[in-house]
């Protein structure tokens, strides 16, 4: 009747002597007494099981090898079976035995068993069907019931592992579907294995399974959203290649449950990676555009964008070169601001609130929208970008400048692209604001016609773009007079033009444009692209008996232009090895000299002290002061990039932003300008 | 040294030859540049309120009284009853001057 150690032989309860003894006790109604005796013995002997459990658990904790858990379970089951034996007629006591055994042995398990079981169970997953006996044992020992949560955890672990194994960095193909599928598959096999033994497909088990299924799907969504949120920067940057990942996100985020964390993650990324002084404006715009496109998929109603975009928009608004970048890309042929099927939205409509209840896809505003959220008219990318700013005047101005620069740079290439651009922009900004651009383009085509008319189809050295001055960016006058053959070319064109258009006169803007020159020298030929001022200077050197000049004389001969302009043209020719600096005069090099081409400042002034150099540069910049003053008068305040960009229209301007900064700083010290909020403005007198 | 101009891309702007200022003060033409139409107050080199393109599309018209206007502005003016076919500046009967072709 008493439990024995496993290695001792047991007496079969059906042996003849035992049977007799049992009937004797039964007849005298002593079974309850007998049962108490047996249970007492069981409790006493349970110390053996306890010892065994302790030993295996010690091994487990020492080595963390799941075999310890496996052995422990095997071993305890052996005890369980060994002590289960009882005389046949005592079978009604079996229930009591099972309860007692389970309670006792489960009680002696340390907390670390939970983890051990979890890991052990995971090793069984790959060969689940082969483990039928194991699950029977687990159920018999009460493990299935007591640790039911662990069984579920194991399945979740497995799904999580699957996500970690197959999803990170995999953005170019959909993952969600296959994760859901494999989870479903696992679930079916696993739950049948676990619950199938406990109750055979009762209504209860169906319910339990349904509940687990729902939780598992949540779990997949949450994990995938978490993972993708951590990768969101790269996903956005690589969009549209990452479209499948973005679509997965949309499916996962169908429950708005994960939106707050996603939005938080997105904001963090934007703060850390985008809103940084080191970030390139162009990159910020690219990111913003991709972000808009991604979020259109993830959240078509635009709530997330509404929560994430404002800092980016504000940041771009404060970036001095943002307008220019946007305009440049708006007009860039290779730029795909427009997606297929997208419609150009006139910008005037952008700020109007918009609720189209006739739209069959209309949805009420989402719950997390917030009070300031408004369903807005669906905007295309350009409208979205332009709406960063309160007015579109900036864009028109910038467009005009950009177009002016481009048009004056084209030689004889077709204007189709620019024309198409302006047409497209008209749809956006409306006809009126773009009228100036239309006039500029017409000037270009008219000029082509005029040149062809005057020169015929034959190549002619002079091609003149005749512009309608009021419709182009303000051009600062320079008193440059072109010498020699340039003057001859000008005069003959001017006369021809007046004959062609008797009611019009021509006024040269001599500092603009470009000249391709070929210089035939005694020992060499130099072919070079020059500015008109540079061309004028070298033309003077080519006059007879005029191979030596000083700056003052050149200035005078060129119509009284500023010293700085002449100096920088001379520097250009020195750099080309055509002219040599001889102290106070400059000499033409009919024969090349060995030392030519070396940059002059290095030879003349050996690294002047910084202050001296700065002063020198600032001195040279003075010529541009009137331009800067004019700009700041008209536009009140400008960031340095804008000043630099506009100075490009000034004749001969070739300073770097750094040099401009040095100059502005010295002007500030003189009290001429003030610097505030990243922009320069004139000091009030 | 011989300098050969392979290609010179130059820029110029056009200005109406209003006769009066021609050659008179080559240096002062930057100051005189803002001659405006007495009717619409827009520069001659701009265009009248109904036009979009300046220049040949929106030409000038000269009166014998020496006043000059955008042609469209003047025609519109003459079409009104109150004009009495007079020059809006000096109220003399409008007579379009023959455009003297060239110097
Ligand atoms: Zn007018
Ligand atoms: Zn007109
Ligand atoms: Zn008159």
UniProtKB/TrEMBL annotation, chain A:
Q: What keywords were assigned to this record?
A: Cell cycle, Cell division, Ligase, Mitosis, Ubl conjugation pathway
Question: Cullin family profile domain spans which residues?
Answer: 349-573
Q: What is this protein called?
A: Anaphase-promoting complex subunit 2
Question: Which Pfam family, any one, appears in the UniProt record?
Answer: ANAPC2
Could you say which protein family the record assigns here?
Belongs to the cullin family.
Is the keyword Transcription assigned to this protein?
no
A single MF term (Gene Ontology) = ligase activity
From TrEMBL, chain B:
Domain (RING-type) ranges:
48-91
State the signal peptide span: none
Asked if the keyword Ribosomal protein belongs to this entry, the reply reads no
Question: What are the BP-aspect GO terms?
Answer: anaphase-promoting complex-dependent catabolic process; cell division
Which superkingdom? Answer: Eukaryota
PROSITE patterns under this entry? ZF_RING_2
Q: Which GO terms describe its molecular function?
A: cullin family protein binding; ubiquitin protein ligase activity; zinc ion binding
Identify the Pfam families for this entry: zf-ANAPC11
- Gene Ontology CC terms, in alphabetical order: anaphase-promoting complex
Q: Which InterPro entries match?
A: RING-box_E3_Ubiquitin_Ligase, RING-H2_APC11, Znf_RING, Znf_RING/FYVE/PHD
Provide this UniProt record's keywords sorted from A to Z: Cell cycle, Cell division, Metal-binding, Mitosis, Ubl conjugation pathway, Zinc, Zinc-finger
Protein name from the UniProt record: Anaphase-promoting complex subunit 11
Q: What species was this sequence derived from? A: Calocera viscosa (strain TUFC12733)
Q: What is the lineage of its organism?
A: Eukaryota, Fungi, Dikarya, Basidiomycota, Agaricomycotina
């Amino acid at each position: 009747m008493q439990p024995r150690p496993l290695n001792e032989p047991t007496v079969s309860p059906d042996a003849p002597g035992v049977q007799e003894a049992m009937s004797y006790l039964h007849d005298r109604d002593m079974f309850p007494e007998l049962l108490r005796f047996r249970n007492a013995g069981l409790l006493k002997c349970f110390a053996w099981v306890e010892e065994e459990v302790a030993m295996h658990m010690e091994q487990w904790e020492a080595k963390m090898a799941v075999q310890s858990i496996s052995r422990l379970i095997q071993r305890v089951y052996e005890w369980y079976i060994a002590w289960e034996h009882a005389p046949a007629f005592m079978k009604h006591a079996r229930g009591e035995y099972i309860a007692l055994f389970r309670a006792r042995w489960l009680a002696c398990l340390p907390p670390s068993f939970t983890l051990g079981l979890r890991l052990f169970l995971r090793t069984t997953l790959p060969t689940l069907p082969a483990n039928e006996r194991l699950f029977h044992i687990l159920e018999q020992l009460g493990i299935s019931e007591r640790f039911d949560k662990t069984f579920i955890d194991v399945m979740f672990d497995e799904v999580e592992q699957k996500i970690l194994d197959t999803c990170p960095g995999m953005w170019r193909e959909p993952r969600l579907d296959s994760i859901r599928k494999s989870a479903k598959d696992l679930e079916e096999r696993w739950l049948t294995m676990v619950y199938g033994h406990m109750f055979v497909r009762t209504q209860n088990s169906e319910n339990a399974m349904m509940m687990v299924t729902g939780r598992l799907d949540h779990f997949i969504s949450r994990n995938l959203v978490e993972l993708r949120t951590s990768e969101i920067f790269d996903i956005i940057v690589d969009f549209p290649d990452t479209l499948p990942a973005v679509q997965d996100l949309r499916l996962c985020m169908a429950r708005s449950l994960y939106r707050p964390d996603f939005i938080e993650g997105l904001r963090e990324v934007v703060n850390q990676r985008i809103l940084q002084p080191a970030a390139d404006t162009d990159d910020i715009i690219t990111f913003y555009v991709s972000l808009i496109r991604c979020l259109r998929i993830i959240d078509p109603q635009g709530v997330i964008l509404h929560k994430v975009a404002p800092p980016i928009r504000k940041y771009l608004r404060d970036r001095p070169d943002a307008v220019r970048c946007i305009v440049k890309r708006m007009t860039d042929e290779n730029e795909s601001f427009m997606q297929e099927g997208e419609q150009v939205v006139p910008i005037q409509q952008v700020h109007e609130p918009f609720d189209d209840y006739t739209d069959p896809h209309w949805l009420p505003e989402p719950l997390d929208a917030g009070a300031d959220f408004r369903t807005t008219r669906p905007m295309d990318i350009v409208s979205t970008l332009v709406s960063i700013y309160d007015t579109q005047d900036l864009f028109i101005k910038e467009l005009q400048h950009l177009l002016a620069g481009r048009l004056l740079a084209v030689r004889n290439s077709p204007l189709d692209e620019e024309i198409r651009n302006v047409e497209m922009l008209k749809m956006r900004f409306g006809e009126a604001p773009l009228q100036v651009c239309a006039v500029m383009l017409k000037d270009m085509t008219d000029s082509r016609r005029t040149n062809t008319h005057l020169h015929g189809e034959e190549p002619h050295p002079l091609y003149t773009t005749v512009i309608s001055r009021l419709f182009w960016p303000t051009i600062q006058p320079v008193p440059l007079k072109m010498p020699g053959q340039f003057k001859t070319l000008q005069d003959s064109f001017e006369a021809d033009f007046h004959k062609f258009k008797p009611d019009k006169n021509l006024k040269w803007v001599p500092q603009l444009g470009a000249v391709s020159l070929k210089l035939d020298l005694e020992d060499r030929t130099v072919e070079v692209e020059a500015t008109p001022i540079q061309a004028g200077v070298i033309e003077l050197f080519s006059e007879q008996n005029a191979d030596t000049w000083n700056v003052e004389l050149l200035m005078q001969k060129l119509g009284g232009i500023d010293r700085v302009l002449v100096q920088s043209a001379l520097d250009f020719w020195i750099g080309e090895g055509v002219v040599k600096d001889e102290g106070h005069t400059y000499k033409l090099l009919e024969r090349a000299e060995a030392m030519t081409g070396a940059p002059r400042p290095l030879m003349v002034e050996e690294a002047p002290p910084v202050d001296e150099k700065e002063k020198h540069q600032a001195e040279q910049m003075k010529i541009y002061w009137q331009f800067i003053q004019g700009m700041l008068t008209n536009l009140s305040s400008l960031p340095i990039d804008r000043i630099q960009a506009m100075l490009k229209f000034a004749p001969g301007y070739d300073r770097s932003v750094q040099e401009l900064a040095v100059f502005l700083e010295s002007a500030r010290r003189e009290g001429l300008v003030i610097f505030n909020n990243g922009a320069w403005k004139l000091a009030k007198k | 040294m011989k300098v050969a101009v392979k290609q010179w891309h130059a820029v110029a702007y056009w200005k109406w030859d209003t006769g009066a200022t021609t050659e008179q003060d080559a240096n002062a033409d930057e100051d005189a540049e803002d001659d405006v139409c007495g009717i619409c107050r827009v520069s001659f080199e701009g265009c009248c309120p109904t036009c979009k393109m300046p220049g040949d599309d929106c030409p000038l018209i000269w009166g014998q009284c020496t006043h000059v206007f955008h042609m469209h502005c003047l025609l519109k003016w003459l079409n009104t009853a109150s004009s009495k076919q007079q020059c809006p500046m000096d109220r003399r009967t409008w007579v379009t001057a023959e455009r003297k072709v060239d110097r």
